[in-house]
From TrEMBL:
Residues 11-78 form the HTH gntR-type domain. This is GntR family transcriptional regulator. It comes from the Bacteria. GO terms for molecular function: DNA binding; DNA-binding transcription factor activity. It comes from Arthrobacter mobilis. PROSITE patterns: HTH_GNTR (PS50949). SMART domains: FCD, HTH_GNTR. InterPro entries: GntR_C (IPR011711), TF_FadR/GntR_C (IPR008920), Tscrpt_reg_HTH_GntR (IPR000524), WH-like_DNA-bd_sf (IPR036388), WH_DNA-bd_sf (IPR036390). It holds the Pfam family FCD. The keyword Cytoplasm does not apply. Keywords: DNA-binding, Transcription, Transcription regulation.
Length: 225
């Protein structure tokens, strides 16, 4: 039996559109509860309905989109309890990842984490929220890779896909950027310079706790407003 040809360009296009739509949701181009009309998305990204539907299905599995009966897909809305649960999960996983990085990371990964920290500092100085998210994502990619634990990476990917929207809330908090730089500097020093697992875990724990306080306060204000 002849093998079925593989459509080599389909997956990269779907991934590209999925990432673009994910970013639009995270940066509040599409607001929580807003309907996502397939025809509008097709025009926006200049792709077929098939590609849009595949992207929507992927983002539904990540919890960023909800399929509502008689309405179709819309941007998911997080309750306070869901947001609190996500931060708790992130706190536990990132603390462990920080400790493992201190124990397992290579010298090259330590150097890469220092470089990623410098990118965060530059982005915060520029005041660009979109760039802030991108460089923080890069910082965590390096941290998680250096942990050497694929399951922590997998679980945090699922958690962070939903918590991305909350990160925009925490970034809206006054002076949060400066605090973020200080907290990530502490994590980097503990994990990549001093190779201290206990301090790295504490630093990660404190960073997520502070981000949660800022993000949940802003979410509460929005929900009550």
């Amino acid at each position: 039996m002849d093998a079925t040809p593989v459509k080599r360009m389909a997956a990269p296009l779907r991934q590209e559109v999925t990432e673009a739509l994910r970013r639009a949701i995270v940066t509040s181009e599409f607001s929580p509860g807003e309907r996502l009309v397939e025809s509008t998305l097709c025009d926006k990204f200049d792709v077929s309905r098939t590609v849009i539907r595949e992207a929507l299905r992927q983002l539904e599995t990540e919890g960023l989109i909800s399929i509502v009966p008689n309405r179709g897909p819309e941007v998911a809305t997080l309750s306070m309890k869901q947001a609190e649960d996500l931060y708790e999960a992130r706190q536990a996983l990132e603390s462990k990842a920080g400790a493992l990085f201190a124990e397992r990371a290579t010298d090259a990964q330590c150097t890469e984490l220092l470089s990623a920290l410098n990118e965060v500092k530059a982005a915060v100085a520029d005041g660009d929220p979109n760039r802030n998210l991108a460089v923080k994502d890069r910082f965590y990619e390096v941290l998680l890779a250096g942990s050497g634990n694929a399951e922590i990476q997998r679980m945090l990917k699922i958690v962070n896909a939903r918590i991305q929207m909350l990160r925009m809330y925490s970034l809206a908090s006054p002076d949060r950027g400066a605090h973020t730089v200080a907290e990530l500097t502490r994590i980097t020093a503990a994990a990549a310079v001093n190779r201290d697992p206990d301090e790295a875990a504490r630093a990660c724990n404190d960073h997520v706790r502070n981000a949660a306080a800022a993000g949940l306060a802003e979410l509460r204000r929005i929900l009550e407003g």
